[in-house]
Amino acid sequence: MVSDFFYPNIGGVESHIYQLSQCLMDLGHKVIIVTHAYGDRSGVRIMTNGLKVYYLPVLPVYNQCILPTIFCNIPLFRNIIIREDINIVHGHSAFSTMCHESLLQANVMNLKTVFTDHSLFGFADVSSILTNKVLQVSLSGVNHVICVSHTCKENTVLRAEISPHNVSVIPNAVDASNFLPQPRNKNPHRITIVVLCRLVYRKGADLLAELIPFLCKQHPDVQFVIGGDGPKRLLIEEVCEKHSLHDRVQLLGMIGHSQARNVLTMGDIFLNMSLTEAFCIAIVEAASCGLKVVSTHVGGIPEVLPTHLIKLAQPNVHSLAEQLNEAIAERRMVKKMKEMMTIHKEVASLYTWQNVAKRTQAVYDVISGEEPKKLIDKLKRWNYVVCVLIHCFECM
């Protein structure tokens, strides 16, 4: 498993890699994780059940990603491949530089390769155009591609110009035993809305900043609990200061995954305001804790939960407020623990990491009988990528 994103960094990709690796080990596979150094965490670390993680002595330069050099990390990567006797290299996330480099290097070493895409990209802006071109080259030699939703599959097929027959949909999952509902001894006259995400533009932090004073004015008994950090936190703090909402908005800062359940069980409603999302594991965790979920109708989110467990809104303040008003009206009645456990069991039956691991294992079994793909002719696309880069820099 190779990606720039892994623990101690917190996120959906990190959790996916860890949980999938643990379940594959339970199925009898040997799994090694390769990522870059995080602060003083460098070298080889052994995690739960003997999972070995290589934190390569390479520092990230932007957004937790290493500098794209293509060749500089070959000696380290080759040493790990030979030492651990690796058969399949599985890269994660289109954002990850290390993932793309490892897929190219593995192809040169005649290894089987798999790529999992966790995100959605556009087609018009410069960043998306360049990323999509790199993805076309990177995936041209991959044996199989996995996407976390059908929307994500359509997006990846168009961006990377690959055959849809070479792409499988395997969703994320949740360890439901870690997200059990909890009876809350709270004021029945208070409604708590929980937000748990990175406070960045893509996660809808600007919508949240507009929504908080609008909803607090409509409902004097509503309060917000916000877990997460990011550049938009300052905007939320300014809104609280401007409207004197410090007693109704609690900013918890960065929350570790082990603390997510404790934060979720503080609330009645979970709010997700993402502007783009391939799957969104946070809404599954919230539903598993018995919360009513209100989310934007974007990306692969409509595929994730049954309609009776989620209210979908357009990514604007008016639509989100409308759906939240309905959810608040429903939550004014005391929620029985029995009903919350029924929701928990339903979510637990929908998504399990054991099922994800078995379906991923099936992909490994299929590609094990294939020949590694060659990039001899396809590497000519690099000339096209270089031309695009030069043209973009000339235009800037």
From TrEMBL:
SUPFAM superfamilies reported for this sequence: UDP-Glycosyltransferase/glycogen phosphorylase
GO terms under cellular component: glycosylphosphatidylinositol-N-acetylglucosaminyltransferase (GPI-GnT) complex
GO molecular function ontology, one term from the record: phosphatidylinositol N-acetylglucosaminyltransferase activity
Signal peptide: none
Superkingdom in the source lineage: Eukaryota
Pathway as given in its UniProt record: Glycolipid biosynthesis; glycosylphosphatidylinositol-anchor biosynthesis
Enzyme Commission number: 2.4.1.198
GO biological processes: GPI anchor biosynthetic process
Keyword Transferase: yes
Keywords: Glycosyltransferase, GPI-anchor biosynthesis, Transferase
Residue ranges annotated for the Glycosyl transferase family domain, each copy included: 181-339
CDD domains assigned: GT4_PIG-A-like (cd03796)
TM annotation in the entry: none
Domain PIGA GPI anchor biosynthesis stretches: 36-125
Root EC class: transferase
Protein name per the record: phosphatidylinositol N-acetylglucosaminyltransferase
UniProt organism field: Helobdella robusta (Californian leech)
Gene field: 20214786
